[in-house]
Design brief:
Length: about 280
């Protein structure tokens, strides 16, 4: 007998239900705690892995290339290239750490290890799991950023009192990057799928967001587009803090990051609901 097709109205209502507002509760905390307890056993190797690459960027470009460049001019400020690259690399490392955790590690728990399926047998909703994964990826990113900031302080690159605001800014940025990565986590059928995200988005973002050179060096059209990238917003907030100044148009940059994070989390949640409804 031919399969009975569901009514079109029923299929449409199911699609719309995927985009309903998030239904969140405090039950995200046990999921977050579970990830923390598992990670705690490998905390030191994980920390080394997360900070090794940005520190190599900092040493190679800051001290190596910085000795050749000397100082760079950004808007009305002239600063040592070492400080320029340090303020950008800590934002870049936050993006990479949050993205990696929300992609590879979250996908392993969701698809390979079936950890999410086991958690759903408890009185925990899928929305709480997605929220816990986003916050967990953000926590790991901030943990790595804190270690890098301590290295920057120990090297004497900057001791500005405004550095106290760096971590709150990076926390918002990490939430944004983790939420964006969870969109691709919901769409992925295997680890190879993430190559598209890294190649087509993260790598161009890294080079166009003012991490390694001022965005004023870009062609005008590319610069106007690049200035709205989430990493650009983070860099434009963090770099003045390294100089001991408060960023201009801070509310605009914070608003772009917050809006991107909220929209990305909603899309990631809807796509994850659709995946688990199959």
């Amino acid at each position: 007998m031919p399969a009975i097709q569901p009514p079109a109205t029923t299929a449409l209502s199911e699609q719309l239900s995927h985009w309903s507002p998030p239904q969140l509760s405090k039950r995200w905390w046990p999921v977050f705690l579970r990830n923390f307890l598992v990670w705690r056993k490998l905390a030191v190797p994980s920390l080394i892995g997360n900070i090794a690459e940005p520190l190599m960027w900092l040493l190679a470009f800051g001290y190596g290339l910085g000795a050749l460049i000397g100082e760079v001019k950004v808007d009305s400020h002239t600063m040592p290239y070492l400080l320029f690259i340090a303020s950008g690399s800590i934002c870049m490392s936050t993006m990479n750490a949050a993205s990696f955790e929300a992609l590879y590690s979250a996908f392993s728990r969701m698809h390979v290890q079936k950890t999410w399926d086991g958690i759903l047998n408890a009185p925990v909703q899928l929305d709480d799991i997605v929220l816990a994964e986003m916050l967990w990826a953000s926590f790991k990113a901030i943990f790595s950023a804190t270690a890098i900031l301590l290295v920057i302080l120990s090297l004497g690159i900057s001791h500005a009192p405004t550095l106290i605001a760096v971590l709150p800014v990076l926390l918002l940025a990490s939430i944004c990057f983790a939420s964006m990565a969870l969109i691709f986590n919901a769409l992925a059928s295997g680890y190879d799928f993430f190559t598209y995200y890294f190649t087509l988005f993260l790598t161009p973002t890294m080079f166009l967001s003012g991490v390694f050179f001022p965005q004023s060096q870009l062609p005008p059209l590319v610069r106007h587009v690049a200035e709205w990238l989430p990493l650009s917003q983070a860099v434009m907030l963090v770099r003045p803090l390294f100089l001991g100044e408060w960023p201009q148009q801070a509310w605009l940059h914070l608003g772009v990051l917050a809006g991107t994070a909220a929209l990305s989390f909603w899309v990631a949640l809807a796509l994850t609901r659709r995946r688990f409804a199959r």
